[in-house]
Amino acid sequence: MSIWCVIIRQDRSACEDLSHAFNHFYQLSAKRKFMKNPMIRAITLVLALSMAFSSLHVVHAQQNTARIKIDVDRSIGEVDPLLFGNFSEHLGRMIYGGIYDEGSPLSDPSGYRKDVMDAVKQLGVSILRWPGGNFASGYNWQDGIGPRDQRPVRIDLAWNDLESNRFGTDEFLRYCELIGTAPYVCINAGLGTIDDARHWVEYCNEPRHTYWADQRRKNGREQPYNVKYWALGNEIDGPWQMGHKSPEEYANFALEAAKAMRQVDRNIKLVASGSSNYGADWIAWNRIVLQTLRNQADYIALHTYINNRDNDLERFLAWSQTIDYYIEVTEGLIRQVRTGPNPRPIYVAYDEWNVWYRTGNREKLEEIYNLEDALAMGMFFNSFFRHANIVKMANLAQMVNVIAPIMTNKQGLFLQPIYFPIAEYGKQRGNASLDVWVSAPTYQLPNRPPLRYLDVSASYNARERMVYVNVLNRSKDKDLSTKIENQEGQLANEVDVWELNNSDLKATHTFGDDKKVRPATRAVTAAITNNSFSYTFPAHSLTILRLRLK
After folding, report:
1. pTM of the full predicted structure?
2. 135, 318, 322, 411: least buried by Cβ within 10 Å?
3. CATH homologous superfamily for 75-133+152-189+300-433?
């Protein structure tokens, strides 16, 4: 590489191209007689250098310049604390050998794994969904109460396994109390009955002396658990589901179940089962369910699992377009059914989401995650934040061992790379999500609109006067120099940086080695000019900037 590129320190390939062009021009000119004049040689050299600098500046600006404009007055809605939920299904080692491991030296006297409990608390799980999942459509909750040694062993038809029922309703609800999370119970809308559902609410929530409330007392719990969140079944539109129904059949069942459950406890919140079968007419299913349940449902559930089967990072991180589409179409359907003078508020509960494609039931869904998957966590949360007005609950599937951020064996546990973004985004719960303006270089997948390399969300904590800017750089190999501009309130020059990045996109963790893909944190002093500053987001990175307003 020539001396010109060393001096101006620009993009290497662009420098080399311009350097070769300059040298070629100089050599040709030197052969001409008029170039023997020293004055003309000097002028030519100055002009050539000027052209080189100018051209390189243009190349750099076109490839790497981005802008993010923040205005704390442009609020979308609250970042609901329930966005940081999780999911615990009777599947593989999620329950048994995961959160519950009787007889283990790592468990407390009740059988709960203490090391897992600590990791779950640090993850900041706000709401925990149980018992499924597909498992719920064949589950009889009455099998899981009473003395554990007297509970029946059943065939789990969903996952072709045996269910001991040693972990049931009381064990789950006590666990939620121990970790400080809200319980979220999914009824059996597949093979179950409306009576099963209303009796379950009675067992959990009834304070008076009734049959099922007294059964709860007999099992050691005097006071009601007051379970607030109940799902009206799981993925009933799916042909894979036990008790699969048409949209009309499901909507009618769910409506009657909702009415019966609310007669037992009028304070409960109900989540309708939205479509998960995107190969069918999922929009028609959601429209019928919402129309039928518009006066009973508080949420409609969406599920999405993404994959990187093409081994293409930028294509993988373009899944945000699909996630945004599912949310926005469902929001439109909600608006359509909310008619009349006082329509019931209905929100989206994204109560299953994750990366899942490497493992199946044979491997008990024990997926090992890498840096790429950790970046995708930011992509999901950015979408949820940008739709904070309508997405009011989200549950990562799942919590331990099964497509999970926490993996255990008999000796201990390790934290997968996806653990860290989930925990960090959770610190923004309760903030106001901001409508940010973003300009950045784009790329495009076939049959899709252009997509910015920078995927951005932001939130504002008014009490602390702190702005959080969440930036995913989807580019595999381009750092993006970005101007961050603030519209309301004066920026302080101290910026806290949380950054997740690694030179190896495929880096993973295992037992005794879970330090490779961990976030770096640092404080930087920004050069504030006109209430803005510049920051470079590294290629294939997830960054959270904390900006304080004076």
Report:
1. 0.88
2. 411
3. Glycosidases (3.20.20.80)
